[in-house]
From TrEMBL:
This is RNA helicase. Its EC number is 3.6.4.13. It comes from Meristemomyces frigidus. ATP-binding RNA helicase involved in the biogenesis of 60S ribosomal subunits and is required for the normal formation of 25S and 5.8S rRNAs. It catalyses: ATP + H2O = ADP + phosphate + H(+). It is found in: Nucleus. Residues 269-527 form the Helicase C-terminal domain. The keyword ATP-binding applies. Residues 361-434, 634-660 are annotated as: Disordered. It is an enzyme of class 3 (hydrolase). Residues 39-67 form the DEAD-box RNA helicase Q domain. Residues 70-252 form the Helicase ATP-binding domain. SUPFAM superfamilies: P-loop containing nucleoside triphosphate hydrolases. A motif (Q motif) lies at residues 39-67.
Length: 660
């Protein structure tokens, strides 16, 4: 590969672009020259510094959305791209964005402050995704020096620090619409010279209550801004967003890049299994699966709520199975650090609570519900309030929308006080999502311990595995109606509709050409484990769950703001704040960590082991980092040596060394 300096003394790659035939793309006439796919990143004519970062990340071939989306963006077209989860959409907009900033900044003196301005803006629905995009920017600008300045305005830090950084007018801003609008209203962030706007996970932005903020941003945009919308699905929310930034009165229309047809032709790399089980046998299944290593590699366990997170963690902890919890109750820095440690392979099991499915509806969804209630009441008359509330209950919103008087009655949609006090509901972080947006890497299996409430959420959950051409599997537990609530300590209301939700999931997956297979698991061969399993499950009480939850939250609050910097300066103290450390809320019995041979069914481990049709994604065996830490701890590395023989005052010998 040859390089030469351009007119601005910036190295460029000189290489003939290799073009191949691509599938048809809906486009306008202006973008006709930019629709061909390429086989290498060098053929995309990106800046040499970006190509060097790409090689450092060991990326060889661009994905379809990258090879077809990057030329369109570099050409200056407005773009609306739809590609499945894990297809590389982040790099598809990030690389041309960084390339454009490098071109704009080339030849501009660093001391010319009047020319420094924010020219690119990336909007994301959640704080986790903002942190993730910022990390990607850091990776791919590693060889750009100080040419590109960027700032994440959604991270948790003192407002004065963020304001000081925004005063320097960074080239690229990443954040949620709510945070961006807040800084624009304070006249700290100026977008009067903005040239490129990206909305990532565009179909989710409206669902997280950012509609008014997006309207404010759209109204404040200067003319000529290039707009790029990325999404995993094409839904009505996306149409609303498109009409907002590309109104019908305007002649500007986006180029639509839909990869549904090419994705349907790809060979399936995800195998989907379901298991019919009782509520308490869910715990027996995960115990045997992890203890007998029926599934090897990294596993994400999705549960219904936060309490369920700690119940599963405490249960596995008694058998020496380490895991980490992840939920929107934890501070953002703690959540992001947990994901990083999981991606690095520090631990292999992460338990994620997808509260948005249970206790935290999006603001737009709740608003639509209340509108339907109001219409139903108006049609049925004021006397039909109780009937309407029974069929379609009004969910209270968080923040300013939830008003309550001193008597506990809530404000109804019709403007009347309801005599029935509604139950208190803990709301999740409105800018947090666990089933979508977060980049979990090299996940072997997604285990739906609790079935989600919608087929769309199921699709997003299983999208955490089998990414970028890798193989993976999903395993989902569901409770038949005749088994619901037979074991009250482990029962949750969400399981009552498991069969109905499963039918909807199967119908949607069949429409995509996928199939859910029954996992043939003989429960009769696990009867020998029931005594141990029952003893451990009884030890996980509600008090133990509450104590573990409180202890984890206190630790996260005290340390999450310092995690990144503190661990860099004090790596030895990491074990004191490990996310997968034992909570000690229940009594750990050492003998439960081992499986004696007499508990195994006839035929031993091979009797319950079954090939599930996937390939392990990393080397099997004991966690190397944890093994080295334990070895150093046993040697007393880094500590002052103690002992009589090592005390210089006690080791003096008047007769001489070696003499007695």
């Amino acid at each position: 590969m040859k390089r030469k300096l351009n007119d601005n003394d910036v190295p460029e790659v000189v290489e003939q672009a290799v073009e191949v035939e691509s599938a048809p793309v809906k486009k306008n006439d202006k973008a006709a020259a930019a629709t061909s796919s390429t086989t290498t990143f060098a053929a995309l004519n990106l800046d040499a510094r970006l190509l060097q970062a790409i090689r450092a990340e060991k990326l060889s071939t661009p994905t379809p959305v990258q090879s077809r989306g990057i030329p369109l963006t570099l050409h200056g077209d407005h773009l609306l791209a739809r590609a499945k989860t894990g297809s590389g959409k982040t790099l598809a907009y990030l690389l041309p964005l960084l390339h454009s900033i490098l071109v704009r900044n080339s030849g501009v003196p660093k001391t010319t402050k009047d020319k420094q301005s924010t020219t690119a803006l990336i909007l994301v629905p959640t704080k986790e995704l903002a942190a993730q995009v910022t990390e990607e920017v850091k990776k791919y600008t590693a060889f750009c020096g100080q040419t590109i300045r960027y700032e994440n305005v959604s991270k948790k830090e003192d407002a004065a620090v963020t304001k000081a950084r925004l005063v320097e007018r960074p080239d690229l801003i990443i954040g949620t619409p709510t945070k961006v609008v807040a800084w624009i209203n304070q006249d700290v962030l100026g977008i009067d010279r903005l040239q490129q706007l990206v909305i990532d996970e565009a179909d989710l932005v409206l669902e997280y209550g950012h509609e008014e903020d997006l309207q404010a941003i759209a109204a404040a945009l200067p003319t000529g801004v290039q707009k790029i919308l990325m999404s995993a699905t094409l839904r009505t929310e996306l149409d609303t967003l498109t009409n907002l930034f590309f109104p019908s009165s305007s002649d500007v229309k986006p180029t639509v890049l839909d990869l549904s047809a090419s994705e349907a032709e790809e060979k399936a790399t995800l195998t989907q299994y379901i298991v019919s089980t009782t509520e308490q046998d869910k715990f027996l299944l995960i115990y045997t699966i992890f203890k007998l290593q029926l599934i090897k590699g990294k596993v994400i366990i999705f549960v219904a709520d936060v309490d369920r997170c700690y119940r599963v963690k405490l249960f596995l902890e008694q058998f020496g199975i380490r895991s980490c919890v992840l939920n929107s109750e934890l501070p953002i820095n703690s959540r992001f650090h947990a994901v990083e440690e999981f991606n690095r392979g520090v631990y292999d099991i992460i338990i994620a609570a997808d509260e948005s499915e249970v206790v935290g509806e999006s603001k737009s969804t709740a608003r639509r519900k209340r509108r339907k209630v109001a219409e139903a009441r108006e049609a049925a008359g004021e006397d039909a309030d109780e009937v309407v509330e029974t069929v379609l209950p009004v969910e209270e919103e968080d923040g300013e929308d939830a008003e309550e008087d001193a008597g506990g009655a809530t404000e109804s949609v019709a403007g009347k006080k309801s005599t029935k006090p509604e139950p208190k509901t803990r709301h999740a972080d409105p800018e947090s999502s666990l089933s979508r947006g977060i980049d979990f890497r090299h996940v072997t299996c997604v285990l739906n311990f609790d079935l989600p409430t919608t087929p769309r959420s199921y699709t997003h959950r299983i999208g955490r595995t089998a990414r970028a051409g890798q193989t993976g599997m999903s395993l989902s537990f569901y409770v038949p109606k005749n088994e619901y609530k037979k074991h009250k300590p482990t029962s949750i209301p969400q399981c009552e509709r498991d069969e109905d939700v499963l039918d909807a999931i199967q119908a949607e997956q069949e429409s995509k050409g996928a199939k859910l297979e029954e996992w043939q698991f003989d429960m009769t061969k696990l009867e020998g484990f029931r005594y141990r399993f029952g003893d451990a499950l009884r030890g996980v009480t509600r008090i133990a769950v509450r104590e573990a939850r409180t202890r984890e939250l206190k630790t996260a609050i005290l340390n999450s703001a310092k995690l990144s910097r503190y661990f860099e300066e004090n790596p030895e103290d990491l074990r004191h704040l490990r996310h997968d450390g034992e909570t000690h809320a229940v009594r750990v019995q050492e003998h439960l960590k081992h499986v004696p041979d007499y508990l195994l069914p006839a035929g031993g481990k091979a009797a319950v082991t079954r090939e599930v049709g996937f390939v392990g994604l990393r080397k099997e065996g004991e966690n190397g980092l944890r093994k080295r830490r334990a070895f150093n701890k046993a040697r007393g590395k880094g500590k002052m040596a103690k002992g009589r023989g090592l005390d210089p005052l006690r080791s003096l010998n008047v007769k001489g060394r070696g003499k007695k």
